[in-house]
Amino acid sequence: xxxxxxxxxxxxxxxxxxxxxxxxxxxxxxxxxxxxxxxxxxxxxxxxxxxxxxxxxxxxxxxxxxxxxxxxxxxxxxxxxxxxxxxxxxxxxxxxxxxxxxxxxxxxxxxxxxxxxxxxxxxxxxxxxxxxxxxxxxxxxxxxxxxxxxxxxxxxxxxxxxxxxxxxxxxxxxxxxxxxxxxxxxxxxxxxxxxxxxxxxxxxxxxxxxxxxxxx
Length: 216
Known about the structure:
By secondary structure, the chain is of the alpha/beta class. It has helices spanning 13-16, 31-44, 58-68, 94-97, 103-108, 121-138, 150-161, 211-214; strands spanning 2-8, 49-54, 75-77, 143-148, 178-183, 189-196. The protein has a six-stranded mixed sheet with strand order 3-2-4-1-5-6. β5 and β6 (189-196) form a beta hairpin.
């Protein structure tokens, strides 16, 4: 069993301006984002974290550095949890994109949607889930952190919650929020936290019930 803490990066000016930064370089945390990163690092400082993985984009790496520092851990870049590749939509304002005919599809039928000259959301979900499953094999009985992006974290949570991809937009993932999943070796999954921005008490898993207990 491995426990994975999914952390969204802190705020940046593109978030405030409601624009899709995507994989554009040079998108850094703003002053508030740096405060958020420091706050989430403080919340996680008491936990026995064994590894910190991060999307290779600056806003995630800057958040990851703050988290890793109290534990004396290096940052391991993981491209598979990098932002969705938005293709032609990258860099555009949400207000402008909302005028596109395909905007309705990405909001209501995302399982069939592919960003123009970019990737499909189902492809982004698959690569992220594959990465997490490989981390489970590398970190049996350990607690690790993965710093990623709002859409990627929503896609990962939707998968482990058994929520259809078409409904993933119902999930909300705030800047510097924490979500926690426990992945068991026998295939079982427990989602322990979603979009948590408050103090983190010890992360306890619920013991699996015996077969006869589950029937009651």
